Amino acid sequence: MAESGRFRKDLYHRICVHRVCVPPLRERFDDIPLLEDHFLNEASETLNKTKLTAPDELFPLLSTYHFQGNIRELRAMVLDAVSSSKSTMLCLKPFRDAIGNQIVNGVEPLDLKRFKSEPGSLVTFSQRLPTLRQVEELLIREALEKSGGNQTIAAQILGISRQALNNRLSRKKAVGSGQ
User: Which residues, other chains included, contact 25 with Cβ-Cβ below 8 Å and sequence gap of 6+?
Assistant: First the structure.
């Protein structure tokens, strides 16, 4: 606008002194609890409801999400959850619906052709390939860690049902105990 003459150049140079780069929410998961609390207050006030309590599994669930819509998407999720809640506990269904669709169906389908031993690829291999059982165990362990031990969220991350995850965990325990 300054170059086209629609904005004064001297004003532009006065306000352009400091640049603030705010990374997207998907890179700032530590901010989610603070933002969720703010949006929870805001939504409660807007909808004339008393402030609801967020369940313990909310933050591990949100930390698995990519937030394509950034902070506005989180705000919309919280507003939807507050409006859907019938008790003093925040309803998780709106969050699960949005996150489940992304994780299970995938925002972008994975291109398996790109998974080669090249720098920057999602998966790299050494000379010796791991067995399928080893890879499955590593994936399950990582999903459980990312979900804070919540099996429902871990199953969503892995793109399987909770029952399928339970079956795999049971099978692992049976093999580990020698049964």
Answer: 31, 32, 35, 67, 70, 71, 73, 74
**Domains in the chain with CATH codes:** 24-109 (1.10.8.60), 112-174 (1.10.10.60)
Alpha helices in the chain (DSSP H): 9-15, 32-46, 58-62, 70-84, 93-105, 132-146, 151-158, 162-176
- The CA-atom distances, in angstroms, between 71 and each of 51, 55, 59, 83, 125 are 20, 20, 15, 18, 36
Cα separations in angstroms, 42 against 28, 82, 113? 21, 10, 45
Does the pTM surpass 0.70? The reply is no
The string of pLDDT tens digits covering residues 88-117 is 999 888 888 887 655 433 334 444 444 444
Cα separation, 34 vs 42, whole angstroms: 12
